[in-house]
Amino acid sequence: MSAAPQLAVRPETEPAVPLTPRWWFRPVPLARIAVFRTIAYLFVPVDVFLTTAWVKAHADVPTEYYQPLLIGRILHLPTPTHTVVLVVQWALVLAAVVAASGRAPRLLGTAVFLLYAEWMVIAMSYGKVDHDRIAYLVALAVLPTIGVARWRDRRSSQAAGFGAAAILVTVMLTYFLAAWAKMRFGGWDWATGSTLTRAIVRRGTDLATWTLDVAWLLPAAQWAMLAFEFLSPLMLLVRSDRARIGLVLFLLGFHVMVYAGVGIIFLPHCIAILSILPWERLRRARAVAGPPPVAVPAGDGDRPG
């Protein structure tokens, strides 16, 4: 059988300009997607039982408190009764665990995306909407479109390239639109005000409270944060594996620093960031190491043919 049309093994000779059609469909190794897919799906039970364990409590909340998000109203999604919440919870976890194995990637991947989207509607339809899940949700949406991908897959795929590009753009927009929101609602006073001071006073850890005694430090950090968020589109220029690793370390380091300071962690967003890493290098490193040498009986090497 011939290879699927989406597959490509010929490397590009010229860099693609960000957000052009060629950039969106630049082939990406399927092994990268396979490893990230496993991580993304195995995070689902962690999120359901640990990160957003509070969502299950909505099973016992009076249904009149349910004010569905726009998507819930458009699709006429069911009101979260006790039965609905438990069915969505366990169906989501089971589908994600099986999908992490790589089996039926389109069918199970689509099921995971739809069930997780419903889980988020149940979570965010009671007055609290988080902004740290959009990149992860986009990741769950695009993974089923890529199809079969294995950890040791040597092929590259335009479908994989589009999926990786969609996640990267969404990760970038999470930061850029955060800066836009700061300007929309707070203006430049956000950077010159006491935003971080208030956050540290309310929930600062021992690692951060000392910054309250340094007058210039927190305003400078606010300016630095705005600069980083407004410059986030530059991450679309990243191409080399080394630059990808550096970008991921920088982004994750930023979120670890925030968590260490005020106890806030955007964990689903951090999972989406992991899609940037060149996971296929794990296979390359293993191939370079190679299997242990096999002893050859004396004299065999001298025999012709």
From TrEMBL:
<feature type="transmembrane region" description="Helical">
    <location>
        <begin position="133"/>
        <end position="152"/>
    </location>
</feature>
<feature type="transmembrane region" description="Helical">
    <location>
        <begin position="159"/>
        <end position="181"/>
    </location>
</feature>
<keyword id="KW-0472">Membrane</keyword>
<feature type="transmembrane region" description="Helical">
    <location>
        <begin position="34"/>
        <end position="55"/>
    </location>
</feature>
<feature type="transmembrane region" description="Helical">
    <location>
        <begin position="245"/>
        <end position="267"/>
    </location>
</feature>
<protein>
    <recommendedName>
        <fullName>HTTM domain-containing protein</fullName>
    </recommendedName>
</protein>
<feature type="transmembrane region" description="Helical">
    <location>
        <begin position="107"/>
        <end position="127"/>
    </location>
</feature>
<feature type="transmembrane region" description="Helical">
    <location>
        <begin position="220"/>
        <end position="238"/>
    </location>
</feature>
<keyword id="KW-0812">Transmembrane</keyword>
<feature type="transmembrane region" description="Helical">
    <location>
        <begin position="75"/>
        <end position="100"/>
    </location>
</feature>
<keyword id="KW-1133">Transmembrane helix</keyword>
